[in-house]
User: What shape does this take?
Amino acid sequence: MTDHPTAHTVPHPVLFNAWKHHAGWVREQIAGAADGGEDGLKHLADAVVVCGTKLMDFYYGNLTPWAVGESALARLHRLGKSEFPAFRDWLEPQGGFSGFATPDESRWILRAGDEADRYVHLHPGRYSPHTVRVPGITLKTAIVTLALARQTGADPLSVAAVNDARERYLALPPMATVDRTRGLGAVLRLLAG
Assistant: This one.
């Protein structure tokens, strides 16, 4: 089985989807795609497919994915649960998951991954400090819109820029409005920094 496309962002055996869960990492991908011209935008649109469509928790704090992964592994090591069988058996009586906090007070959830190679599935806790809940389609739209706007100089909060990104790169229908303070507008502003 091939590794997840963002497996390199965390230490082994952690499984973490940086596209869905880490604003700082996503900002770097937006900048790289914007610098890559049309090919960069097409590659970005293909890559964000892993965001899916469901609601997710998106971390915008200062810790890198690697630092969060190391924190999770250090906790498991201290508990003697760093090997797959011990980890899986430890989670089972807890409903299949366990939470922990990082130094910035954000909360993270550990679950058993689907495969024994990347078995520590890590994601932000629901309603944790330094996180926001975001629908996958909103996140994908924000990511591609910001990269396109960086290339063209357009206002990423404009309906025209959003719809250009949605129609040309994401095969999504146009939006009638963009509220600059909520929903997509809030995510655009968060990722724009």
User: Anything to note?
Assistant: The radius of gyration is 18 Å.
